[in-house]
Amino acid sequence: MNVKSYVWLEHEYPKNSNAIASAVHETLIKFNFGAQIEEVHLFADGCGGQNKNSTMMAMIMYWLTTEAPKNIKKRDIIINRKQYEDIIGQHSKVLKLGAGWDVFDWKTKTDNVLKKPSQWYFKCNESKRFIFLKEKDYVTLRGEVFYKSDMGCAKTIVRKSKKIAQLKPSIQRIGSTLRGDKSSIDSLLKKHYGADWRDNTDLDFYKIIDTTIQKTLLWKLAT
Description:
4-stranded mixed beta sheet; 6 helices
């Protein structure tokens, strides 16, 4: 199958830029790029917290610099809703966190190596396409505000005296602290599914959340 779905639960790891970048990275390093491929196109929605951020940019630059096949020189991110919906509608391969892929701490390393988005030479939020170009041992980035017109110029966004190869993110531990009121979750599920909602196998996810919050509350009481 050409489509993958990366799955993890809320108690395993937050849905943030580290998780999304790690999932995309896992696909990039394991995909079999042919020797004739020189350009790779990635498209996604414009969510700033997950896709359209410096963490994702840093991961792509790191992959392009240190891990991509030598024949790949260019990377283009396309944010197009129609294409995105078409891909999601196809059958997909499911990879569970910890079993088929890991989360890496791209964000911390990104802050150390890349300039802040406010210091970039183009406006990230207004850009619809991002073009990464590999130039020997470094990568330049160009932001375009139009889908079909190329108006910008490619420059580096790496801090002075830093190199993108210095990222080398570490693997993150699986586990996330959940916030919430256990009683409110239990009451809500009882209201919709009855007092024996825990016997419903379709609600296994909520049983995990309920148990995790209970453990968190007990830990807080103990400390």
